[in-house]
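Continuing the series of single-chain predictions for the mutant panel. This is the parent chain; the variants come on the following pages.
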Amino acid sequence: MIGLSQGISRFLAPLALIGLTACASHAADDGYANKQLLTDTETLHVMIETGPVNIVDVRPKEAYDKGHIPGAVHLGADDVVDPDAHVDGDLLPHATLVRMLGERGIDKDTPVVFYDDKGGFHAARLFWMVEYFGHRQASVLNGGFPKWVAEDRKVSTRAPKVKETSFAYTRTPRRHATADWLLDRQGDDSVVVIDVRPSKLYNDGHIPWAQSIPWKQNLAEDGTLKPAAELLKHFASHGVTPDRNVAVHCQVGKAAAHTYLTLRVLGYPRVRSYDRSWAEWGKADDLPKSAAELGG
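Parent structure:
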């Protein structure tokens, strides 16, 4: 692990290269370099009023039916998971996912906002998925449904009528990591791997060169993302700086996407999710592993 002073020194210089002025432009609010990837409740309210916008509720269907943000369609976090995959939590075939998006009126030309009630834990996975599929106007609702309700905003129990469309699928490889990609870059100082699972799971077994940075450390107590300055210092203390290629993994791809989103919001230019995560790596006999009790 890189020490705090060394990590911060590595962080400061490259930050200028990715747009320190962008962060400064948001100094009056939260300091996020890519603020457009994190929609606040008032902004979503305006988007609903002025349109067009696609809103996707990724909570369980029963929660959606009891009340959701007006105009939101439902696509549950587990609806995109292939129950027959040999890797737990793996996504359905891309053609199936693209069809599911189109059936809900989601295309690549209209802004899309995902939300949940878990601090973005589930919404972030769908955010990563559509970015990987080439969407350039995707975001997550900061604070999700709990914040929307706490502000006494309108809630609906009616599913909207949507016009089925076509989602023009274009893979973005730089947003995705595989086991081979990680293995080929072992010992590469330009690459840092983050394991965002709880520390106990990391200690039970992990990729030997992965840093343990649990995803919940991204969130403030109210379920919103912590301020940029706090997060930047936090990641820099682990050597996760904007000049490096960052690959994120968890157990089954969900939590990894949350840290992927967080780093994207902060302006890190080279971030990818190892979506199959430990569910794949941990079961593979030919992939190296370490555990705390083994001294690794």
